[in-house]
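Fold sample X.
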Amino acid sequence: MSEQLPLMPGCDFVELYKVLKVQGWVGSGSDAKLVISEGMVEVNDELETRKRRKLVAGDRVSFNGEKVTIAPPQEGAKPKAQAKSSAPKKRARPSIEF
């Protein structure tokens, strides 16, 4: 039986390249994208070359003899926090008196 990887609370899916990173099967996102594009990854027993393939609970990922099944979020886990705005904060200008 394969290992289970639960989705993050509040998320409906996870992208394929992120699974390879989280599992520690590759060293970086660029490595993950490379092995996916090279045809070295299977999803649900079929070759997958889409790096950002959205995986949902029940999907099975295989790479280099390793397997993981995407599981629903764990009960009792806290939902993912809302992302903060990436807009730069305006800084107040110091007042200068002459």
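Fold sample Y, listed below.
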Amino acid sequence: MILISAWKRGIAALGLIALGTAASAQERVEIDFWDMVWGPAVYSEVGARLVDEFNTSQDRITVTYRPIAWTNWYETYLTAIASGSAPDLSTGAGFQAVQLYDQGAIRPVDDLIEKLRANGTLDDFGSVALEAAQFDGHYVGLPWAMAARAWFYRKDLLAEAGIEPPETWEEMRTAAKAVTNGDIYGLVIPGDTAGMHHIFATTINNGGGLFDEDRKPAMTSQRNVEALEFLAGFAEDGSLHPASVGLSYGDARSAMQRGQAAFILAQPNFIDEAGDAGEDIGLLPPPKGYHGDIGTVFWSLQLMVYEQTEHPEETLEFLEWWSGNMEPLFSEGLARVVPARISHQQAPYTAGNENIQKVLDLYVPNARIIGAQAPGTFPELNEIEGDGFLVSIIQRVMQGEDPAKLAEEVQEHLEEVMN
């Protein structure tokens, strides 16, 4: 505790002021909660308010809330763990919990899961989110949200071309060709990290995935090669935005909002963040792959408890409370993800948002994490997502390289990572 206190003083000296209530430190158990910033500034304000509500609801635990920016977020956690000053619990990236668990830094939440199962609360969590939190026979975290990817289209561009929203990949490619004219293109794909999400989403959409059910790399399967061929087809047809390789996700999003592209793969609240342009944008039901399959990629976001906590029981008590009372983070905090709990999905804000409901109803039930078709999660997925290799692959797909050969390169890379 001396080391942790010293670390807190250092943070304060740097001007990084934690939010929350700090009361009766000598009488109450102190819990540190680090929460990534999942939305605009108001998100963290709502988070701090909820922590205050918990602190005043009882007289045994004081939780300190600290928002964590995404800039250098991974180094922030690794440094804290190495220095013995990790938080008691936190949110984090999609595979943060399983990777840090594999390093011995995360405490499984199996006891809480069993408690929730016994009292019936576990039924409130979606099965896809729960499955993605499992590794090595344990739950490495408690799901709180899902970050799915869905297809969106410009209603005005398709209407001007006399085209109905496509229902299949073939129709989508045809529609993209039909609207391409001048500085308007059928599809925009960013050349950054968000670009590789197209590999995840389309392989799953076509009934494939990076891995098979035995957790062995399977990128060279017919279904996966077909997915790369589907993406390459837009470039071949001349309907891919020519600047795509050099665009960031923000650039691609702006191009879509300006009406310079007819289709984009984006986060569930894409229309809500499009401003006035949102009136001309629609959510496309999952298009069928070449064999009639539908699906997409999603990330199961988890609340995780750290092995360094000196108060595991109190931390789990707060975790249970937070999980049940966090709905305002979506309705007031405008989190850019969708709730994992069914009751929060049915709350007025989310239930009243037609597009988010379509994502929950049409996309999420068929969504898989990037390890599909392998069940559960595993630590190597963090490296696969973070080492940049697949970013280079999507760039080369857009530049017209042979999809089959690129699939072989991905296969070799996956085998290296797994070995």
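Sample Y note: The first strand starts at residue 19 and ends at 20.
Also: The CA atoms of residues 3 and 85 lie 7 Å apart.
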